[in-house]
Amino acid sequence: LTSSTARSLVRLRQMMIYSCVMITEIVADEDDQGDNYAAKDEIVFSELKELKLWDLESLTSFSCSGNNCDFKFPSLERLVVDNCPNMKIFSEGELSTPKLQKVQLSVFDNKLWAWDRDLNTTIQYVYLKRKKEEKEKENEKSAEANEKEKDAKDSGSPNL
Fold this sequence. Notes:
Blueprint (H helix, E strand, L loop, with lengths): L2 H5 L6 E5 L22 E4 L5 E5 L14 E4 L5 E5 L12 E2 L6 E2 L8 E2 L4 H37 L5
Parallel strand pairs: 1-3, 2-4, 3-5, 4-6, 5-7
Antiparallel strand pairs: 7-8
């Protein structure tokens, strides 16, 4: 979406974006003519109650890169972010989500959620936690491979 299109969605109540492998952000920082805004944009989704983002492997943030957009979600009560492994932050600009109290981490399991002070902090926490878990799995696999190699050398078996 361009930021001008996003501003026109004032009556939108539910938004679901899923299975878009190449999408990197939901709201782009340009108008329909492709001109960048010099001043900050404020985009208000006044009636949006539910936002679901899932299976978006390239998504890095919801909004405008470069801190040019401020977002207000005065009615947002439910946010699902599932399998968005590269999402590091929700928005670089100012962000208001007064009714949001948690981020659901699975489309199918509403008991799997996270919350840490605000939306951006929560998204950053989830991203860093996922990266830490990935690194731990890599370390475990490496340790297992080293152990197998050591066992093979100790037993005199050929190294496979």
